[in-house]
Amino acid sequence: NAEYMGVEALMQKMKETEDRLETTEKALKEAQKTNQLKNDRSDTTKPTGSTNTAEAPVKVEPSPAARTPTDDTPPEYSSKMGGPFHPKPYFASRIASEGLDEQTRMRQEAVKKAMGHAWKGYSEHAWGLDELRPLSLTSVDDFDLGLTLVDSLDTLWLMGMTEEFKKARDWVAQSLDIKKVRKTISVFETTIRVLGGLLSAYELSGDDIFLTKAIEIADCLSIAYRSPTGIPYSLLDLRTKRASNPEWAEGASILAEAGTVQLEFRALSRFSGNDTYAAMGDRSFIAISESSGKIHDALYPLYIRNDVLRFVSGHVGLGAMGDSFYEYAIKLYIQTNNTQSKFREMYEESARAVLNHLVRKSSDGFTYIADIDDGQIVKKMDHLACFAGAMFLLGAHFIENLPDKSHHIQVAEGIGETCYNGYRKMKTGIAPELWIFPRDKGMTHDSENLHYLLRPETVETLFYLFRFTGNNKYREWGWEIFQNIEKFCKVPNGYSGIRDVTVTPVQHTDKMESFFLAETLKYLYLLFSSPKVLPLDEFVFNTEAHPYRIFKP
């Protein structure tokens, strides 16, 4: 496709091989069509199979735009970010309480106090480690990248927790070094939490150390993008520099993982002036959009191959493994200041398919988003899918002539009500991991999925509902959820998930997820803050609630 040849050119250098005799015929033909960029080092790429091998991270160089539009033609798609851009510090705490009544101000302060309690437990018992086990006072160390610390940087900054932020910043400067890590990490989680957290810390503080560390992380992750299609592998062994997909996925990549890295890489390109990062992420997104095997034309199955553009699953849904791909279609359009129609078209088509084929009403009147598995409707909804209320609101707000816009808003409000009631109906007032919707019972819980992992998606949608409607009931619902988190999840040294939300006294999971500090508490704080803080016409959030400025001239 000539329209995307520029992206192929940008990424071709990542597919050069040390032994050109092993280069595939396809790659040779592509090389003849594009102006190949030369690496200052060669690498070895295996174009098929479930793994890639390389000696060291690719050193990326600034590259030309994928497409240079004329002045009078809006770009359908471009990876040119127009950097380098150095952000000015954003001091949200100065305006967070503007115009708030006393009750809302007290609620905001209560959320900040909860963040202080969570941070204190992490600082005292798991400092520099990935995640705290607040009961046993041990840690979970799947990444060796200070996951909770990096994921929490922007929350600390937004809440005005200056001393805590400075101490965390110094740890990043002195101790965060991906080159020393000898573990196999998730490319997706490292991107949205670590790279994403560093970039938002840079966006809000302007401190160059965060950009320096973000570039180191991205250069290392680039190994995972050395596939024939540009669709990244899910796992990266930092000891062997080998990328692969998990065995349980039968060699395939995961939709949400391959399609939820683009906001971060575009932000990095804008900050660094190096458009190759944006092209690397965009190539994956476009490859997904052009792959065969979609359902109802615009619903994307959960598993996709790396070697050919083909889905290998009949399962679609907005829960686990699918969710954030749909979210990023609209957010990429927003991030580029509503200028790149490719992303808008992808979102409109997929949103229409979701509304037509997945959105359902339960027998007791609750709006939910079902799955389709091999042609059969699965009447369940993951807590993860509660983000979709926010997604539909963003589409309705930013797409000027969106067909049937009022229906999108109505569905968003319905999802917010469903997810809130998913909390209210439980004995603890805390939501389970998913709900099911049998015809004879309506909305109910599933006995095998009764746990709560401190998830943020419901309060995320409540935050957007309040911002876009101004209806105070969404603040009341958020406050009710927060009070129950305080009652049942708070422990002496932090917060913990719950094993069964239907019984009391509760049994804790003994794990404080990093996203509790990065997302759940951040969205609650913003829900009770002035709308002047991170206004949605100036900032877009990644899927881990890390905010970046919209790219405006």
Task: Provide key terms for this protein.
42% helix; 4-stranded antiparallel sheet; alpha+beta; 3-stranded antiparallel sheet; 553 residues
Descriptive notes:
The chain is of the alpha+beta class and 553 residues long. The chain has 17 helices and 20 strands. It has helices spanning 5-12, 25-33, 102-125, 147-158, 162-175, 187-205, 208-221, 255-258, 262-272, 276-290, 323-335, 341-357, 388-398, 405-424, 457-469, 473-488, 514-527; strands at 51-53, 131-133, 138-140, 184-186, 235-237, 242-244, 253-254, 303-304, 315-316, 359-361, 367-369, 371-373, 376-378, 380-382, 434-436, 444-445, 490-491, 494-495, 539-541, 547-549. Helix 13 runs parallel beside helix 15. It starts with a helix and ends with a strand. Mean pLDDT is 88; it is low at 1-74.
Write a compact overview of the structure shown.
The protein has 17 helices and 20 strands. It is of the alpha+beta class and 553 residues long. β15 and β16 form a beta hairpin.
Q: Taking Cα atoms only, what radius of gyration do you get, to the nearest Å? A: 22 Å
Shape, per Cα inertia axes = globular
In which order are the strands of the major sheet placed? 1-6-5-4
Main pleated-sheet profile: 4 strands, antiparallel
Helix content: 40-55%
Structural class based on helices, strands and sheet pairing? alpha+beta
Total helices: the number is 17
- Mean pLDDT, as a whole number? 88
Unreliably modeled segments: 1-74
How many β strands by DSSP?
A: 20
Cα-to-Cα separation, first versus last residue: 29 Å
Relative strand content:
5-15%
